[in-house]
Amino acid sequence: xxxxxxxxxxxxxxxxxxxxxxxxxxxxxxxxxxxxxxxxxxxxxxxxxxxxxxxxxxxxxxxxxxxxxxxxxxxxxxxxxxxxxxxxxxxxxxxxxxxxxxxxxxxxxxxxxxxxxxxxxxxxxxxxxxxxxxxxxxxxxxxxxxxxxxxxxxxxxxxxxxxxxxxxxxxxxxxxxxxxxxxxxxxxxxxxxxxxxxxxxxxxxxxxxxxxxxxxxxxxxxxxxxxxxxxxxxxxxxxxxxxxxxxxxxxxxxxxxxxxxxxxxxxxxxxxxxxxxxxxxxxxxxxxxxxxxxxxxxxxxxxxxxxxxxxxxxxxxxxxxxxxxxxxxxxxxxxxxxxxx
Length: 341
Description:
It catalyses: D-ribose 5-phosphate + ATP = 5-phospho-alpha-D-ribose 1-diphosphate + AMP + H(+). Pfam families: Pribosyl_synth (PF14572), Pribosyltran_N (PF13793). Pathway: Metabolic intermediate biosynthesis; 5-phospho-alpha-D-ribose 1-diphosphate biosynthesis; 5-phospho-alpha-D-ribose 1-diphosphate from D-ribose 5-phosphate (route I): step 1/1. This protein has two domains: about 15-175 and about 325-340, Rossmann fold; about 175-320, 3-Layer(aba) Sandwich (Rossmann fold). It contains ten helices and 17 strands. It has helices at about 20, 40-50, 90-105, 135-145, 160, 175-180, 200-210, 260-270, 290-295, 325-335, and strands at about 5, 10, 30-35, 55-60, 65-70, 80-85, 110-115, 150-155, 170, 190-195, 220-225, 230, 240, 250-255, 280-285, 300-305, 320. Helix 2 crosses helix 10 (about 325-335).
């Protein structure tokens, strides 16, 4: 059985088909939606919510491994949204996106908007001492060079990475989807935890939505690799956290999980503080082969991710929440904005 996928408020036991998402449109959406290899299922969900069929595109490889892109439908004069996550295989998906953007521009479409649920290289947003280049900036320039008119991303790793684009950037922060799911867990005196200072802004946004939705909670920041924590209550007073987690449910909030090593360190320290159930929310589940094994053997109650990256391995501890409707709503919003007209 596939990992659980939450779509449109329904928990699905197996991978859905287009008919699971289709909502008859009240009027035709005047855009074309194209899927890359990295986001096929998500693109089907989005097109279903919009009530339109995915535009036909031929994706293939030559014998030597070179990619071939052919746009089958007529896109002349249309706004085209290309949905493509830059997940594994990253270089193949990146090259495919570049070729799709260039091919669409050559086909005389009006505007090309890339929806990149997972943006690879976003973590590499500052120059290293040994080399002056900034990979995140270079990816932005590459995409713009082939005709990108706007980009939509999901939970960018760093705010500064968005600034490398000269075209309009729309960022989706899908925390409300996770909060809606957590309502069903009957959390006991929950504490939202950021694993480091860089991610605290994200955790605080999550914390605010929790309280807005009627889930009374507090927030804490892990310091020094999790050996100590700063605790912030509703009155924003900083306190040292000792046994304050006793009998409380925890929600660790981060943008992505890859190897799971930082999660394991956090779990160890939280268990020492007698925390009850420990959940983790990470927007992007960019797992290595060993990460899921670590998670299943750990004391983590449940890992909640979204489907920005296709989940290739099942786990009873992982729940994947669909962003199909969220992205469909953003497309409708972008279409009506004057910056693309």
